[in-house]
UniProtKB/TrEMBL annotation:
CDD domains: AdoMet_MTases. The active site is at C368. This is Cyclopropane fatty acyl phospholipid synthase. NCBIfam families: PRK11705.1. It is an enzyme of class 2 (transferase). The lineage of its organism: Bacteria, Pseudomonadati, Pseudomonadota, Betaproteobacteria, Rhodocyclales.
Length: 397
């Protein structure tokens, strides 16, 4: 929970002479009162009610906001049977706008004063998050190892949803045999492998994770697919790299608003004049909202979700926006599927990662599911062209 609560911090009690006087509300009373506005009860019996194990939980959350909430969960201070629904209810009631911590203020100042996604810092997220271990991610993800939102329109399983997403991207890009595709932030190569096998294209992928590059190259052996351990800013600087199509799926969240324009300049430089660029990214509703400090500290260091307006500004005079597709609600279902896989396979990793990691990862997956359920975060796919598609662009759906 993020911002400052401006409501009353006192309640009334009756003096021995019958007069009423104000007494300070305890932290627990204030905490319980806030949660009640979201239909959540402390130590209640419903799945989304919160169970407190440490009497200092309320003080820690009210003082630390989102960071205090997440860290106290990691430390085992509280539990909730349906953590995803707890978070969704908190956000729908906009309690995040009523509670703040110093961490949120510091996070906002850091984002304003520093380029948190500079070339030097860019490799940090690869080391901290994506290099957690290929075996771990294989157990949690689908066989394609797609670590981005699935497309659940006609799908009934995670594998079907991820395959549908990959095919949707290929169709939106109108891939045809013999084309060259650049994948900026290629992960383990799920899109490149799919596009090479199903659509007959050759691919180059950029990643800042050594684990991803090595594992992805092994998965794509024998295909016209090349992995490069390289930051997007260093790629194609000589102007000689040109591609028929470009995709960036789930990487733009790490670019940062100070670098948006540079990112799109690189994409434009590498794209043929009659090409198409598909950008798949999580987004936020308000540009002034800083990155959640718990996510920044424990999951995605230096991440920065874009707003719709920021993307529009950064692409101005570089690309024409042909199509914008929001299927953010599908990320809720994707995250819940990842969580189910994570819990089912956890016994294989318990000894290596430990209980605090388990609670951290569970909180990450379920809290993020709650944010998409509350529609406070979105998932956009943009299709961009350098000069406009003659006759107009027709979306594949």
């Amino acid at each position: 929970m993020e911002h400052t609560h401006s409501g009353s911090s006192s309640s009334l009690r009756v003096r021995p002479d019958g007069a009423q006087q104000a007494r300070p509300r305890s932290a627990l009373e204030a905490f319980a009162g806030l949660l009640a506005e979201a239909g959540i009860e402390v130590d209640g019996k419903r799945p989304w009610d919160i169970q407190l194990h440490n009497p200092q939980t309320a003080e820690r959350v009210l003082a630390g906001g989102s960071l205090g909430l997440g860290e106290s969960y990691m430390d085992g201070w509280w539990d909730c049977e349906r953590l995803d629904e707890f978070i969704a209810r908190v956000l729908r009631a906009r309690l995040d706008e009523r509670v703040s911590g110093t961490a949120m203020l510091v996070q906002g100042l850091r984002a304003k004063l520093m380029n948190l996604q500079s070339l030097k810092r860019a490799w940090h997220v690869g080391q901290v998050h994506y290099d957690t271990g290929n075996t771990f991610f294989e157990a949690m993800l689908d066989p394609h190892m797609a670590y981005t939102c699935g497309y659940w329109k006609d799908a009934s399983s995670l594998t079907q949803a991820q395959e549908a997403k990959l095919d949707l991207i290929c169709r939106k890009l109108d891939l045809r045999p013999g084309m060259r595709l650049l994948d900026i932030g290629c992960g383990w190569g799920s899109l490149m492998k799919f596009a090479a096998e199903r659509y007959g294209v050759s691919c180059v992928g950029l990643t800042i994770s050594r684990e991803q590059a090595e594992h992805g190259a092994a998965r794509c052996a024998g295909l016209p697919v090349e992995f490069r351990l390289e930051d997007y800013r260093e790629f194609g600087a000589d102007g000689h790299q040109r591609f028929d199509r470009i995709a960036s799926v789930g990487m733009f969240e790490h670019v940062g608003h100070k670098n948006h324009r540079h990112f799109f300049k690189v994409a434009r430089r590498c794209l043929a004049d009659d090409g198409l660029f598909l950008l798949h990214t999580i987004g936020k509703n308000l540009r002034r909202t800083p990155t959640d400090p718990w996510i920044d500290r424990y999951i995605f260091p230096n991440g920065d979700l874009p707003s719709l307006g920021q993307v529009a500004e950064a692409t101005e005079n570089l690309f024409i926006t042909e199509d914008v597709h929001n299927f953010g609600a599908d990320y809720d279902r994707t995250l819940m599927a990842w969580h189910a896989n994570f819990e089912a396979t956890w016994p294989h990793f318990a000894a290596s990662y430990g209980e605090r990691f388990r609670r951290m990862w569970r909180y990450y997956l379920l809290a993020c599911a709650g944010t998409f359920r509350a529609r406070t975060t979105q998932l956009w796919q943009f299709v961009l062209s350098p000069q406009g598609v003659v006759g107009g662009y027709q979306r594949s759906s």
